[in-house]
Amino acid sequence: MKRCITLFLAAVLALGLFSGCTASDSRTVINVYNWGQYISEGNDGCIDVIAEFEKRYPNIRVNYVTFDSNETMYAKMANGGITVDVIIPSDYMVDRLIQENMLLPLNMNNIPNAKYIHEDYLGWDFDPDNTYSLPYSWGTVGIIYNSKYVDEEDVTGWELLWNEEYKDKILMFDNSRDAFCITQCMLGYDINTTEPKELLACAKKLAEQRPIVQQYIMDQVFDLMENEEAWIAPYYAGDYLTMADENEDLCFYLPKEQGFNRFIDAMCIPTCAENKEAAETFINFLCEPEIAGGNMDWICYGTPIPAAKEFMDPEVVNDPVSYPDADTWKMGRNYRALPRSTTRLMEELFMQVRNGISIHLPK
User: How far apart are CA 87 and CA 101, in angstroms?
Assistant: First the structure.
């Protein structure tokens, strides 16, 4: 069962009991766009974050939609086909959205709970003054494997994903940035390289892996790993803990010596937002220690709000997967926003890999 402390907030419940509201056309609607499996929805006795928000603020209704990668989210927004009030992209994507004038400055007067965020998670390069973003969570990318089928002696680094002994039981990221990062770490390149020859070498390395990959996936990883249809997959640490609750044979390995991605996901308001103040109310709600604790207790990612840990299961707080030690954290590398030309090249090369065609630099 999901490790979780049931969160009953007296004040929130009291407000919910007295609200007595039903869906109404008069309510302000905010559209929240977030990763899949990335907010507590009331499963296993945990807090239902959105339901509690709507109890607290009966005049606001949340329309919640998910995406499976930063690139998917960006494409939807860049095409102008959606209206979104709150998004939760990763650090490098926040940087890109700022550069392309796709985010609105936050009015901190409407987000007083930002005071609970620890300074270590503020002022990062992608938004040094936190003008456009506030941290939601943080984490790392490593290897999930099933100890029932995978020999521990084979778990030495990213090369496990290329081990032919596990052909058709290996999953791989279905987004170019995370997939290329793995080969960049293996080949000793900067994970933010813009050199075409280095990206070409990474694509060729990924092409070597393709014959033994069962599927290129994102959120499908949960069912495939939990049900033992696949045995090895690179994925995000917090999601590993969610899967491990369903299958105790799953383990997590962080290739420290080769390098790995560490990230911060942040709450932002895009320029297409129609209800900015209500969106800031939602962000403020997520920064309440009780709410943040109940939320992070379920999604198992690192919280940037120290006071939230008081409302979390100690087993989660003390888990080195969710909360690696300082030395391990320092070994991680952060993505930066890449030039558009580099992003396009990486995506074109990754498409060649996926389609099984000859790997070459576009003319």
Answer: 15
Q: Pick from 205, 232, 215, 214: which is nearest to 174 by CA?
A: 215
CA pair distance 9, 51, nearest whole angstrom: 13
Structure tokens at 225: 């790993």
| Burial of residue 18, with CB atoms counted within 10 A of its CB: 0-12 exposed, 13-18 middle, 19 or more buried | exposed
CA–CA distance, 76 with 96 (Å, rounded to integer): 14
Which domains does the chain show, CATH number per domain? 10-138+263-323 (3.40.190.10), 139-261+333-355 (3.40.190.10)
pLDDT tens track, the chain, 363 positions:
344 544 434 333 333 333 334 444 689 999 999 999 899 999 888 999 999 999 999 999 999 999 999 999 999 999 987 899 999 999 999 999 999 999 999 999 999 999 999 999 999 999 999 999 999 999 999 999 999 999 999 999 999 999 999 999 999 999 999 999 999 999 999 999 999 999 999 999 999 999 999 999 999 999 999 999 999 999 999 999 999 999 999 999 999 999 999 999 999 999 999 999 999 999 999 999 999 999 999 999 999 999 999 999 998 899 999 999 989 998 999 999 999 999 999 999 999 999 999 999 988
pTM over 0.70: yes
What is the rounded distance in angstroms from the CA atom of residue 201 to the CA atom of residue 183?
9
Contact, 254 vs 162, CB < 8 A?
Answer: no
Task: Measure the CA–CA gap between 245 and 292, rounded to whole angstroms.
Answer: 21
Work out the number of other CB atoms within 10 angstroms of the CB of residue 9: 18
Query: Residue 182 and residue 259: Cα distance in Å, rounded?
Result: 9
Query: Which tokens hold the place of 43?
Result: 């499963």
Parallel, antiparallel, or unpaired: how do β-strands 250-253 and 86-87 relate? unpaired
User: Which structure tokens are listed for 100?
Assistant: 């392309």
In three-state form (DSSP H/G/I as H, E/B as E, the rest C), the secondary structure along 101-130 is CCECCCCHHHCHHHHHCCHHHCCCCCCCCC
* DSSP codes, 183-235: HHHHHT--TT---HHHHHHHHHHHHHHGGGEEEEESTTHHHHHHTTS-SEEEE
